[in-house]
Please model this.
Amino acid sequence: MADKVVDQEMIERYLLGELSPDEQAELEALYFSDAELLDRIDAAEDDLIDDYVRRELPAAQRMRFESYFLNEKRRERVRMAVALFKATAPRVAPRQAWVLPLAASLFGAALLAIVWLMVQNRGLHQRIETLHAEISRKGATPPVTATVPAPVKQPATPLPVAAIVLAPGLTRDGGDVATLAVASRTRTVRIEARLETRAPRYEASLQRAGESPIWTASGLVAQTVDGERRLVLYFPREQFTSGDYILTVTARGFIADYSFTVKLP
Amino acid sequence: MSGPVNEWALTQEAFDRLMEWLDPDAGTAARKYEQTRRNLLKFFECRRCVSAEEQVDRVIDRVARRISEGVEVYTANPFLYFHGVALNVFQEYLRKQIAPMDVPVPDAEDSARMQQRLECMERCLDGVPAETRQMMVDYCTVDKASKRRTRETLAERLGTSVNSLRIRVHRVREQLERCVTICLSPGVETKPPSRH
Model:
């Protein structure tokens, strides 16, 4: 298989468990050495989920999807896809309910109009000839049709993300605590914690200073941002009120606290 | 954090040696390590392992152990070495399985939870740059029949290939899914996003 081009169909068959054991192992060996192929497999997984959610998978594939492809994690991704489709089509979804009946009505009306026009056709021809004769006789100018410009739609204004990069330690730069200013229109807060140790996964918790954690997570994987290893976390704005916070990151034999102050408008 | 169920535990020293084996350059080693984890996770998920993360840890621990114990590992491609170990770990996994696990069809979420998820998704979408949001809207609001043409047009507009576009969309989806997961987690108060 190494010399073959791995096409979309083969990737789908892999995801649905339809390759032979040898083909499966060969494809795995290929993507273990080719990050781009793994990216394509991820994208193909999205396509399968999308087609499933929209009920566009053929019956046989749908069965394989449900019996082989789905696991707990992918079930959650199916729910996410449903939410994503609804969120990206807020104006399309309600319109679908009346678009088809309206289109049918318009089509019927158009048919009636055509029949009526055919009946009137002969009479109109005679009338046009009469009008032409009158225009020629009086020297009149035919009317001009005016066009009205369509209204311009304004793009939605994006809402900003408040972001902060934290270094470990309860204070920074000799006592200055990092401050995260959250604007009134901010919806999401991104916190990037610089990591001074390398571990497969991390646990993290967030708390207001002196209080119990308001958020915890495990199995977090570091990302490389600007050449540094960082833990990148996203929170909804409503998670925060003005005050001091401590983010604690732990891994095997490692613990670090990151303190910061949140200022709301 | 769910650790591997192994007698041997990965130490910082063993982990450092594994990273050095992956590549002498620390940055390159980190990228290779991330790639290896992604590869292994896909491997075990696509082979329907119930505890894919645990099996990933098992493979990494096993390779790290061999290296830390001084076993000479000769391979031109460390990724393929991991694949070989993964195949062995998978065989062991199969032997321990009593019966394949049935995964039921996705159950419908209750309407309150679904609404909460939708509100979180809208809020998370609001958090991405406008052009990224528009890309997601254009990408998602097509049916299968017009999908190919729409993606070609969108890719052309963004100056990229259709494959790169799909991968880009996948990355945004991952980001959105992480954001929604956090938004839905207990203790996080969710309010309907106010539209401006």
